[in-house]
Predict the structure.
Amino acid sequence: MATLIEAPKASSSSSEFKFNYDIFLSFRGLDTRKKFTDHLYHALNRAGFRTFRDDDEIRRSENINSELQRAIKYSKMSVIVFSEDYASSNACLFEVQTILEHCKKSDHFILPVFYDVDPGRVKEQARDLEKKDSSEKMRGGSAALKEVASMAGMVLQNQEDG
């Protein structure tokens, strides 16, 4: 059974804070949007969880990064769906880094889901990113990727029907 990871508590209680979403869903669209993530999104909504996913909630004219940061900040938790090519997306690296930073300064939860990829493979991809690009931005994304991939989560292999 998966374990939710709890971040250190912020100085203000979450009861004073207004959340717009229960869950921020982070995923690589090309890998899982029309398969697992779509099923997960609809199941969460049917269960009564207000869930943010970028294709539904961000208007094209808005600044995507600032909207993603706002959605993460105003979500109680994040579910990060790691897939084989998650680490190859700059947008995904931005999300995982932003989620982890928010988690460390609030009571935000993170649940990693490894969809057809082993957690060890995600950590390996993070190390490969550091070798390819040693910029500060890439180091931050790869460090966040390694840290979240080390958390307890759900490992789902060979899910043919999503």
Observations:
- The longest strand covers residues 75-82.
